[in-house]
Amino acid sequence: MTRPITSAVTLYLIAAVAASGATAQTVPALDRAQMDTTVRPGNDFYRFVNGGWLARTEIPADRSSYGSFNMADEQVQPRLRALVKDAVAGEAKAGSDQRKIADYYTAYLDQDAIDARGLTPLGPDLATIGKIRDRRALARYIGGSLRADVDVLNNGDLDTDHLFGLYLERDFAVPTQYAAVLMQGGLMLPDKSYYLDTSAAGTALLGKYRDHIRTMLTLAHVAGANGMADAVVALETKIAATHMDRTETWEPKNGTHRWARGDFVRLAPGLDWPGFFAAAGMAKVDTLIAWQPDAIAGLSALAAREPLAAWRALFTYHAIERRADVLPRTIEAESFAFFGTTLGGVSVQRPRSDRAIAATSAGLGFAMGRLYVERYFPQSEKLRAEKMVADIIAAFDRRIQTIDWMAPATKAEARHKLQTLRVSVGYPDVWPTYADLRVERSDAYGNAERVEARAFRSARARIGRPVNRAEWAMVPQQVNAVNLPAMNAMNFPAAILQPPFFDGTRPDVMNYGAMGAVIGHEISHSFDNLGATFDADGRLRNWWTPQDLAQFNAQADRLAAQFDTYRPFPDVAVNGRLTLAEDLADLAGLSAAYDAYRSSLGGAEAPTVDGWTGDQQFFLSFAEAWRSKIRDASLRGRLRTDGHAPPRYRALTVRNLDPWYAAFGVQSQDSLYLPPDLRVRIW
Ligand SMILES: [Zn+2]
How much is the pTM? Predict the structure, then answer.
C-alpha cells in the first residue's frame, strides 16, 4: 500500500510526519539568515523566526512536506542504510534478526524479481475472494482478513481498508488486562468525508478515484474492471455513510460499549458473526469493545444487503491496492500516481532503495531499532534526556500545585497520576523478538503478509491477558514521541533526541525551548481533554470535580476558538475541535518547559547569545522546531484528518504565554496580540 505516510492521522504523537531520507542539511540553531527580522515578531512570529528558511527552502519533489522532523530524520536515514548494508554483507546466520533484515530489504528492493513473479502472489487471495458465493463465505472472508492495524489512543491509526480492525488496548473497566476493540474500516481513501463531499471538487476527485480503481483492476488483468470500479465506489460510499467521524472516534467514552460476542447478533444484525469470529480465531473471546457501535451495526447490515458481486469487487481492488508496493511496477506506479500525486501533490516517487529501508524498518521495527541504539545512541544521551524529562515533570507538578481554580482533591489525583507516569527514553527495556516471523529473500509480498499476520496473532493472543506498561508503541528509530494515555506511559524514541530538537553542544535554554516543549507536550497529554478522562491506573473515571471540569472545558473551548480563526486557505479554516487535544498539549508543554528552564537557572538569567536574551532563545528555539513547508494538496487533506494543527499555527502557541510578550515587546496593535484575559491558561 503506498498511501503516503504523511497523510496518516496521529493524535497522541507530537506530529504526523513522513519518515524519509535525503542528504543531510544541517542548520545552526538561531541562525539569523534563517529568520526574517524585518517582520515584527508580534505580527508574524513564525515568519520572524523562519522567514529566511521558508523563502529559501524547496520541498523535495518526492515529499509532500518538509521541515524540522525531516531534518532530524535525515540524520537517521543514512544510519539505517548503513545498518541494512552491513546486514546484507554480513551473511548472518539463518533466523537471526540481521538475516531477517537483510532478506526483507533484499526482497523488497528487487523490483525485477517482483515483476517476474507478476500477479502470482495475489493468486490465493483472489481465488478466495472469487469463491464468495454466499453470506457465510462473506463473513468468513471478512473475519479471516481481520488485522491488528488500528489504534485510537496511542499512534492514532484510525483507518483500515479491511472491513473491521482489531485494536488491542488496556481494558478501561478492568485495567489489569487487555481488551479487544473492534473498529470500523473498509475505506481506501483517507476519510469518510472524501466520499460524502458533494462539491464540484469532491465529485471530481471521486471520479478520478473511480478511474484509478478501473486502471488498477485492468493492470491486474481482472475482467469487468469498468463495472467493478463503479461498484467499489458505490459500496465504499455506503460504508463511509456508516462511519463515525474522527472527532467522535477520539472520545475515550467509546471504550465503554462492551458487547458480549452474542450481543453482536442482537445489536448489529446482518453479518454472520459466529462465522466472522471463528474465521478470525476469536471464537473464544467473550467480550469486545464496539468502539463505533453504530458503524459496526451499519457495516453488518451492508454485509447482509449489498450484492456479493460488489463485495468481491471491493475485496479484489483492496487486495491489489494494499500490496501495490510489492507488486509489478505498473501497478505500483499507478498507485503512486493516485495516492502520491493526485491526493498528496507529490510528483516524484522516492527511490526504491529508500522505500525498501522504510519498509524494512516498519516490518522489523524493533530489530532495526535495537541495532540502531547499539550503534548510535550512547548511554550519556539517554541519561541527559531522562534528566530533562524529570525536570519538566517537576515543573508540571509545581504548576498543578499552584493552579488557583482547581480543587485540592482534583490536584491530588493529578499529582498521583504524574508521579506514577511511566516514562521510557530511547528504547524499550525488553526488546520484542521476531523469532516467529518467517522472512524470505525472494518473497516481498509474502513478507509483508506475514508481518501483518504476526502482529495480529500477537494482539489476539494477549486479549484478556495482563497488561505490560513497559511495551513501546513506537520504534526507537522514529523521529517522534508518544503518550500512551490508558497506560499512563510515554515513549521518547532515540531518534528525536538530536538537532533541531536536542543538541548537546548548544545552550540548554535552546534545548528546553525545542525538545523540552516536546517532552512537556507528551506529559501534558495525560491531562488534556482526553487524557484527563483516565486516572493513574488507566481506569476511565472522572476524577475532576464538576467545577474543575467546567473551568477546564471553558478554557479548552477558548483554545479551540483561537485555532478556528487560523485560515491556511480562504475557504478552509483549522478545525479547533479536531486539533484540541494537541493544541492543549502544546500549550501546557511549552508552559512547563519554560518553568523548567527558568528553575534550572536557579533565578539567574541565561547568558545572551548573539544578542538574544534567554527568554528570546527559548521562544525562538520553540518556533524553529516547527519550521515546515507542505504542499497545498497535502495540507488540504491533513486539515480534514490530522489531529495536529499545521506547524505554522502550533508555533503561535506562544501567544498564550505572558513572557513571550515581554521577550519580544509585543504590543496591543500587533496582530498576534491577545489581551491578557484572552490568553488561555490551563496548567
Ligand atoms: Zn501530541
Answer: 0.89
